[in-house]
Design goal:
binds adenine, 317 residues, 30% helix
Length: 317
């Protein structure tokens, strides 16, 4: 926070009128402290723009949401869920940081950490597919990031390559928590987690290609939907396309419900084995995050000492 002239602010709690002797004070940054640039992302309910601080020249990603549209579409809840989730995860290196929120008459603004290397979908599209080494590097970070969310009592529910960003060091950062589920803390002392991971939620569909069969068949999901989505992304890294893809959503859903997918020629056997054990319709047979981390595919990765986040990123392909 910086000290700026008092006139800037409608956000200021102490106005000049109320405190005439205070000429300068600590003021929350406002929209006019940023220069807005190119559109760098687009969602159903938001537009993400590059925003540069006029003062420090530091770059941010400003997520802009139109208030009227949110109200009309009954999506106001998404905004508060996203804010709570991001605030809760604000010290996580694997999640985009939320620096500030503002609003004006028409819009809400989330001032987010800018991830300069784009999203993981664009990376895969640029290279067609990734090799085993890259799949191991990015896969280990993605599963560790999901583990961290769950341990913080948050289910993402829309894990997909577009929602995985890449920072300046090519480390992954999860984004887009609008459809997250915030779990209730549990007072069950025998439970390993502080949160009630058995929470089931209804009436939510993420993105067709990454949606889990339990949501389509039984209309519920729990934290294991994020693990399913991870399996789909791991497949996609090697195959260059998601496992369940069809010409329309309906046909995609049918494939998901039947767990109907085929490995591409040359798909490495060790990753085949892991994908098969994750893409299990039966939730109790689906690998847990700890089992994924212990799978031979990740045997070189040490998930305990933080080294997966500090190693040099591999050359792509
Ligand atoms: N697109 C959407 N969110 C972004 C962010 N935080 N950084 C870069 N590009 C983005």
């Amino acid at each position: 926070q910086s000290i700026i002239e008092n006139e800037t602010a409608s956000h200021n709690k102490l106005s000049l009128k109320e405190a005439p002797t205070i000429q300068k004070q600590i003021v929350k940054k406002g929209i006019k402290d940023f220069k807005f640039g190119a559109v760098i992302g687009d969602g159903a309910y938001s537009t993400v723009m590059l925003a540069t601080s006029i003062d420090t020249k530091k770059k941010y990603a400003a997520k802009v949401l139109n208030k009227e549209y949110l109200i009309r579409q009954k999506k106001v809840k998404y905004v508060s869920v996203e804010k709570i989730a991001l605030q809760k995860l604000n010290n996580s290196h694997s999640v985009v940081r939320l620096f500030s929120t503002f609003q004006d008459e028409s819009s809400l603004y989330f001032l987010l950490e800018y991830a300069p290397n784009g999203d993981f979908l664009s990376l895969m599209k640029k290279y067609g597919s990734l090799d085993e080494n890259c799949a191991c590097y990015y896969g280990s970070q993605i599963i560790d990031a999901i583990d961290h969310l769950h341990a913080s009592g948050i289910i993402h529910r829309d894990i997909k390559p577009e929602n995985i960003l890449l920072d300046g060091e090519m480390r992954i950062k999860l984004t887009d928590f609008g459809t997250a589920k915030l779990l209730d803390p549990t007072n069950n002392t025998s439970s390993k987690s502080k949160y009630d991971l058995s929470t089931r939620s209804k009436s939510f569909v993420g993105t067709a290609e990454y949606v889990s069969p339990e949501l389509l068949n039984d209309s519920f999901t729990d934290y294991r939907c994020d693990i399913w989505a991870f399996g789909c992304i791991l497949f996609q890294m090697i195959a260059g396309k998601p496992p369940f893809k069809a010409t329309n959503e309906y046909l995609t859903f049918q494939k998901v419900m039947k767990v109907q997918y085929a490995f591409t020629p040359g798909f490495p056997l060790i990753i085949r084995d892991l994908v098969k054990k994750i893409l299990m319709k039966n939730l109790d047979q689906r690998l847990t995050i700890n089992q994924i981390k212990e799978h031979p595919f990740f045997k070189e990765m040490n998930f305990k000492d933080g080294s997966i986040w500090s190693s040099t990123p591999p050359d792509i392909k």
